[in-house]
Amino acid sequence: MSICGATNVASKALLLLAASSLACGQGYVGSKVCSSCHSEIAKSYALTAMAQASGRATELHLPNGEVSAAKANVTYSVTTKDGDLQLAYRKKMPDGVTVEGAKSLRYYIGSGSHGRGFIFEEGGQPFQAPIAYYGAGRGWDLAPGYSDLTTIFLGRKAESPCLSCHASGPKPVASGLFEEGAVSCERCHGPGEQHVKTPQASKIVNPLKLDAERRDSVCAQCHLTGETRVMKAGRSEATFQPGDLLGEHIVPFVWENPDKAEFKVVGHFEGLWQSKCKRVSGDKLSCLTCHDPHVKVSDADKIAYYRAKCLTCHSTESCKTTLAARKLQSDSCIACHMPQRPSTDGQHTAFTDHSIQRSPGTTTPSERSPKLVAFWKASASDRDSALADADEAWHSGDAAGFEKVHYELLAVLPTASDDATVDAQLAYTEDLAGEPAKAEALYRKALKVDSENLLALTNLGTHLARAGEMEQAVELWKRALAINPGLLPPGLNMARVQWRLGQLASARETLRRVLSLNPDSQPALDLMKEMEKQR
Question: Which of 65, 415, 434, 510 shows its CA 20 to 30 Å from the CA of 142?
Answer without folding.
Answer: 510
